[in-house]
Amino acid sequence: MSRDPLIIAGVEFSSRLFLGTGKFSSGETMRLSLEASGAQLVTVALGRVRTGGEADDILGHLDCARYRLLPNTSGTRTAREAVLAAELAREALGTNWLKLEIHPDPKYLMPDPIETLLATELLVKRGFVVLPYVHADPVLCKRLEEAGAAAVMPLGSPIGSNLGLESRAFLEIIIAQSRVPVVVDAGLGAPSHAAAALEMGADAVLVNTAIAAADDPVAMAGAFRQGVEAGRAAREAGLAGTASGRDPALASATSPLTSFLGEAAS
Amino acid sequence: MSFVELWRRHDFGEVARRIASKTPADVRRALGRPRGCVDLEDFAALLSPAASPALEDIAQAAHQRTVERFGRTMRLFAPLYLSNACANVCTYCGFSAHNRIRRKVLSDAEILADARVLRSHGFDSVLLVTGETGRVGREYLSNALRVLRPHFSGLWIEVQPLPQEDYASLAVDGLSAVLVYQETYDAAAYARHHLRGPKSDIDWRLGTPDRLGRAGIKKIGLGALFGLSDWRADAWFTGLHLRHVETVHWRTRTAVSFPRLRPHEGSAIPVTPFGERDLVQATCAFRLLSPEAELSLSTREGEAFRNRAFRLGFTSMSAGSRTNPGGYASAPESLEQFEIDDGRSPAEVAAFLRSQGYEAVWKDWDSTYDGFAGRREGAAAPVALAS
After folding, report:
1. What is the mean pLDDT of chain A?
2. What is the pLDDT, as a whole number, of residue B387?
3. Rounded distance, CA A72 to CA A257, Å?
4. Could you tell me the residue range of the domain that residue A58 belongs to?
5. Is the distance from CB of B242 to CB of B201 less than 8 angstroms?
6. What residue of A is the nearest CA neighbor of B308?
7. Domain count of the fold of chain A
8. Which 8-state DSSP code applies to residue A67?
9. CB contact under 8 A, A265 and B63
10. 3-state secondary structure B265-306
11. Which pLDDT score is estimated for A92?
């Protein structure tokens, strides 16, 4: 669908919708939702994976040849815990890709920026492809980029809130200055939110709650797919300027500024 | 990716053609972008011939952006030429090695004499300028910075490109900012105009802002010498360079200057047309591309033009400039690098700005930013920061 595929750490993705695998009412609903979403990258909470090789209620329903797994470190509270979790995930799931998620606060699940930067530095050195989940903090995103993050995943609004792009002004700055892909993660509650993120220039979005908790998750997964595709297509087509882009003052500009210049191009 | 690699991905002629193909609709789209959302394609449209009929709208927008970010202020600074010795042969420069002029490298006493004159005019920032030769390398500059540190808050240099470690070392000596103009991003024109000497190595020059950024220099100034090649493409490449610096060396402040070819001692060379209207278009396009870059209006421009154009995106001006070493105090006889066209004193320029509702800013930097205790205490010793 897209003229420019998304590339993260050298891997190409034609779908810009990433899905989380938690909160589905059944493994089968999850499987059908993933299929409807067209997603190629799916996150898996390490905490929910049976690392001992037993039958697993998430992995058992995932076609691992079809989806690239992105284990997350949800549940860890410090860089040290996250590094341990990452090593375990690499061993258990056979991938060095990692969604770094450190939230010491169990109520709002707010990411800890200091531990996240520290863990990114450590994990990059250990050979991980690190995608850190962070606040929409432009300086932190640049610091993570310098630390070797493969992408940054700033939040649109508090995780699970379905509020949409409450952090829009900061996401715009992050997108404008990032040299790694920007994946808007958390808080996207409707396909229109996902479309808006892609229109704004986000490289991808990650959605879980809004799909898994919908009345019809499979239909909602399809709707998100269309939202993401429409947003990306609009971005590539080049949005026409809006009235709000123009300064109102321009319409009533006072004295001309360039009349002293001859009309002829000199 | 380094800027040299990025530069190699763009063909100069192709960029010029792409700019020429922009339409009035492209210009309108670029003008409709919210603040800070002008991309390099929009920038190409703003630089294009198609934008010329919309110049008034572009100027209004640029003026608005500038006032939003900087208010009605204008930073004043002066160049301090330390030397006119140069190992390069360049077609357009009065310091070119083949010119039979008296060469001079200022001593400490001569530097201080010029510094005193500049201080008495009220300047608190100076731009130190030299030609390109080993005589004015890191050691000479390091000494000059130490000599001047107690007298100025902001010390900028516009000198030969240096290795990264030299910049890092000069930063410790009190360097605040570095300007390095690419002159032209057109490799063929670059080769035509830089005939001999270290400056003929285009890659070394192109890579300088990256070395500055890596060395942690706090402000980097870019620019093309308009008139050497197609100005629209040169302006676009300067914008590409600016975006690169803003993105990669994101802690660094940026500045852009707009020098135009002026008459000088030496050979007359063919000059690509770049008129005042073009200069205004280029400046305003840069302001829309980057709301935060400092844009500098040269004393090479005439008084009449400067008095009208200063509102159009510019945020700094040189004033009362002398472009010969020792020119302020001791050596009126040595040859200047180029002719200046606004002979007003700094006080006259400041008074004019005030009459237009603008404040002249003499100090916008502090030596503490460069790790030095306040210069009024006299010692100018580096602050020992506990680690």
Report:
1. 87
2. 40
3. 56
4. 6-240
5. no
6. A260
7. 1
8. S
9. no
10. CCCCCCCCCCCHHHHHHHHHHHHHHCCCCEEEECCCCCHHHH
11. 83
Q: Is A125 a catalytic residue?
A: no
What phi and psi, each to the nearest 5 degrees, are found at residue A132?
Answer: -80, 140
A260 interface with B at CB cutoff 8 Å: yes
Interface test with B, best of A146, A261, A266 (most B CBs within 10 A): A261
Whole-prediction pTM value? 0.81
Which of these, B130, B75, B71, B73, lies nearest to B106 by C-alpha position?
B130
Q: Considering the domain boundaries, does residue A169 fall inside one?
A: yes
What residue has token string 């600074």? B77
ipTM of the complex: 0.70
Whether residue B59 and residue A242 make contact (CB cut-off 8 A), yes or no, is no
Residues B4-25: tens digit of each pLDDT: 999 999 999 999 999 999 999 9
In the block, residue with structure tokens 């699940």: A109
Write out the DSSP string of B110-162.
Answer: HHHHHHHHHHHHT--EEEEE--SSGGGSHHHHHHHHHHHTTT-SEEEEE-S--
Contact A265 B275 (CB under 8 A): yes
Chain B positions touching chain A (beta carbons under 8 Å): 28-34, 36-37, 49, 52, 55-57, 59-61, 63-64, 246-248, 250, 273, 275-278, 280, 308, 311-312
Partners of A260 on chain B (C-beta within 8 Å) are 308
CATH of the domain at A23: 3.20.20.70
Any domain includes A260: no
Give domain B3-371's CATH superfamily: Aldolase class I (3.20.20.70)
**Contact (CB<8Å) B32/A241:** yes
Who's near A162: CB < 8 A, 6+ residues apart? A187, A188, A189, A190, A209, A210
What is the Cα–Cα distance from A133 to A102, expressed in whole angstroms?
8
8 Å CB contact of A250 and B57: yes
Looking up tokens 């920007």, which residue turns up?
Answer: A182
pLDDT: which is higher, A213 or B199:
B199
Per-residue pLDDT reduced to its tens digit, A58-84:
777 777 778 899 999 988 889 998 998
Answer whether residue A61 is part of any domain: yes
Of B149, B75, B59, B78, nearest to B108 by C-alpha is: B149
Beta-strand runs (E) in A120-250: 129-134, 153-154, 183-185, 204-207
B276 → closest Cβ in A172, A259, A261: A261
The residue behind tokens 């020119």 is B327
- Tell me the CB-side half-sphere exposure of residue A230, using CA atoms within 13 A: 12
**How far is A213 from chain B, CA to nearest CA, in Å?**
35
- Selecting among A23, A99, A107, A142, the annotated active-site residue is A99
Residue B280 and residue A249: Cβ atoms within 8 Å?
no
The single-letter DSSP state of residue B5 is H
Which of B65, B250, B303, B311 to substitute to test the interface with A, most A CBs within 10 Å?
Answer: B250
A101 closest CA partner among A125, A126, A69, A134 = A134
What lies within 8 Å, CB to CB, of B337 at 6+ separation is B81, B84, B93, B94, B95, B129, B264, B323, B324
CA–CA separation, A159 and B298 (whole Å) = 52
Specify which residues B157 forms β-bridges with: B128, B178
Q: Is residue A247 in a domain?
A: no
